[in-house]
Write a structure and sequence with these properties.
The chain is about 30% helix and about 25% strand. Helix 1 packs parallel to helix 8. It has about 425 residues and is of the alpha/beta class. It has eleven helices and 22 strands. Strands 6, 7, 8, 14, 15, 16, 17, 19 and 20 form a nine-stranded mixed beta sheet that branches. Strands 1, 2, 10, 11, 12, 13, 21 and 22 form an eight-stranded mixed beta sheet that branches. The radius of gyration is 21 Å and the shape is globular. The structure holds flavin-adenine dinucleotide.
Length: about 425
């Protein structure tokens, strides 16, 4: 049997970053996953590290958009009808959290974490030798119509108020940045302070390798074997059992598998999302991710090809894939950029772990000594992994945290 100070369960970008920050603070840490680091949700994202996210994704406020989704005509969203009763309470809470004043409140509460996002990644990349994956040229949001662009005015104003770099551009000026985009959009916003990565899996692996270089132990095992072996917590791994005084649960969308049996029920839902890589035709190329705002998909240049990522699908986490959105999206995507053949036989499916108030849970688990939670990062887990790692490592080692952690506490659900 091994003994460490901390066991971190889940080696996605969140758990790996936490393990690395704890190791940097001199603690002995075991990082446990049933697979390799970064192979879960963290494998398949769009690769955008957003120091500049202002308003979270919101419930559609206009009836036309809602109707299109209901009729399964929307490229940006899909749902499984038989799952709707299960997710209805969550959707009601999400809708309430999407009121304009709540969006501003969420933006303010999340700001301290987002403000550290790029800097923490840059610091980890430098020490992990992973800088080659980072692109420091921002990302582009494209608007085909005047109306959808005008709808961004409030966000742009709020961003400028917060001092967040954004450059509204007419279509041609945006095409000067990305000449392979076809002129099917009229407006764009260049969020120039964001960075993006060319291979999210390789990034998490690089952080895991740095963790190992600092003496951290990576193990294969099932997190659901966690139990109390007083006075410690114990887990069984392929390399034997491990005991620790503290455990961090960073299992992303799988966190409830462990927490529910422990009696900790927090209202997590998943927004499933797909990606598929395509070869570019001819000399077409992208140098940064782009969002087609009206159609709700992104194109991101990755080492594997141009990664097309989809918006939300409301369905049970483990239900079989239904990648119908590709059929709805591809005409618009091909109109925008010269996408060629798919690079793999089938799309990848992941599940964004989301709380309805668009805030993660970071901090102590209610009522369980030595148990810590770090999950529910929704659309922004890649972005927020390292900032979360630093915050929770500071909390666990009694250092003044770099920001007030109370907005991210699980206590907000305890009433
Ligand atoms: C299509 C799509 C696009 C996205 N784009 C972006 C983006 O551009 N920028 C951004 O910031 N975020 C983006 N996200 C969100 C981001 O990918 C997630 O928020 C993030 O990956 C969550 O990380 P995590 O470490 O919490 O979870 P995960 O990466 O899922 O890690 C959890 C780990 O737990 C392990 N695990 C689960 N169960 C067990 C068990 N029983 N025993 C042991 N191990 C277990 C899994 O193997 C996994 O490795 C996107 C997500 C999707 C789906």
């Amino acid at each position: 049997m091994a003994r460490t100070d901390v066991i971190v369960l889940g080696a996605g970008i969140v758990g790996t970053s936490i393990a690395l920050y704890l190791a940097k603070r001199g603690l002995s840490v075991a990082l446990v996953d049933r697979g390799g680091p970064g192979e879960g949700t963290s494998y398949g994202n769009t690769g955008i590290i957003e120091g500049n996210t202002i308003f979270p994704q919101a419930f559609p406020s206009d009836w036309t958009a809602l109707l299109r989704i209901a009729l399964k005509r929307a490229p940006e969203a899909n749902y499984h009808l038989k799952f709707l009763p299960t997710v209805a309470p969550w959707l009601a809470a999400f809708r309430a959290a999407s009121r304009p004043e709540r969006l501003v409140e969420t933006a303010q509460l999340m700001r301290p974490l987002f403000a550290r996002a790029v800097a923490e990644h840059e610091a980890l990349c430098a020490e992990a030798g992973a800088e080659r994956y980072l692109r420091r040229n921002g990302w582009l949001k494209l608007y085909r119509g005047d109306k959808s662009f005008a709808g961004q005015a409030r966000e742009l104003e709020f961003a400028s108020h917060l001092g967040i770099a954004n450059v509204p551009l007419e279509g041609e000026a945006a095409r000067a940045l990305e000449p392979s985009l076809n002129p099917v959009f009229r407006h764009a916003v260049h969020w120039s302070g964001a960075v993006s990565v060319s291979n999210p899996l390789a990034l998490t692996r690089a952080y895991a390798a740095r963790f190992a270089a600092l003496g951290g132990i990576s193990l294969n095992g099932d997190a659901r074997t966690l139990h109390r072996a007083a006075p410690h917590w114990r887990i069984y791994s392929a390399g034997g059992s491990v005991d620790a005084g503290d455990v961090v649960i960073a299992l992303g969308p799988w966190a409830p598998d462990l927490l529910t049996p422990l009696g900790i029920k927090l209202p997590l839902a998943v927004k499933r999302g797909y990606h598929r890589h395509y070869r570019a035709r001819g000399n077409a190329a992208l140098s940064r991710p782009v969002l087609d705002a009206e159609n709700g998909y992104c194109l991101a240049p990755m080492e594997q090809g141009i990664r097309l990522t989809t918006g939300a699908e409301f369905a049970a986490r483990d239900a079989p894939p239904t990648p119908v959105q590709f059929r709805r999206l591809l005409p618009a995507a091909r109109e925008l950029f010269a996408l060629g053949e798919p690079a793999e036989p089938a799309p990848w499916l992941g599940a964004r772990p989301c709380f309805a108030d668009s805030r993660p849970v970071i901090g102590r688990a209610p009522g369980s000594r030595g148990l810590w939670l770090a999950y529910g990062h929704g659309h922004w887990g890649l972005t927020l992994g390292p900032a979360t790692g630093r915050l929770i490592a500071e909390m666990m080692t009694g250092t003044a945290p770099f920001c007030d952690p109370r907005p991210y506490s699980a206590d907000r659900f305890m009433h």
